[in-house]
Amino acid sequence: MSCTASNEYLNELLNDKTTVSKMPKIFLHAERLLDQEINRTRNELFHGITNGVESSASDTSITLPSPSGPRIKLTEKVFAPVKEYPKFNFVGRVIGPRGMTLREIESQTGCKLLVRGKGSMKDKKLEEEKRGQPNYEHLDEDLHVLISVEDTEDRCRVRLQKAVDRVQQLLRPVKEEGEDEIKKKQLKDLALLNGTLREPGVPVGGAPPIVPGGLLGMPIHQGLTGYQLTRHPVPAAYHTHLTGLEFPYAAGRPGTILDYQALLEPSILVKPRRPIREHPYQR
Length: 283
Fold this sequence. Notes:
Elements: H1 3-21, H2 30-49, E1 71-79, H3 90-95, H4 100-109, E2 112-116, H5 124-130, E3 144-152, H6 153-170, H7 181-194
Antiparallel strand pairs: 1-3, 2-3
Helix pairs in contact: 1-2, 2-4
């Protein structure tokens, strides 16, 4: 499958996941299977682009004990340090581009993640309207991520601890510019979804190189042979092959006779008259 087709397939999977998550829990395994396929497709795309470097999935795999005992449900809240970092976008960091970061953690740990508390809703006006209403009691609490999991007790604790560690890592801002690996990964996810992800060293756009200066080809009238043609000079800094994005003036239409300055006799530029056709359909 080509990279473009894989990008489209991944977007379709994400749209399906959004639709299924809004439906009643009729299809018991639909969300889980979609999460697995989303994670697999995403890892395949990155695996191909990073030239064989192992994907992040191998670093986050968990080993579960054998199931023993009845199934239980465990929950835990991980609060964001909003007071220490009031301007940091914790919600966007946890959710990721189109929810990919959150869904990746859910797929790898088997837990359910929900962003709750003050500032968890995108529409601030709607958040104020819902505050204090039934099922919106969490809006009175500080911003946090609610993690829940259902399994046997031993397996629940392993899954829950892994999810808590991942969320705490997301909620830990990186002060040094350029050292935030999570942000780099999310930007790569976004480029992947938009179909703009490319390997380092590959120029943007598919336009062929354009040769600067007077090397651009153009048809010259036979009567102009021997005349000195001059063109506006190209800066000396642009001495190599240029693309349209690197040198915008070189990206225009091919050169024509009007682009050049020549001291020519007017008679040379007179357009020759075409012979009269004897029949309108005769060439």
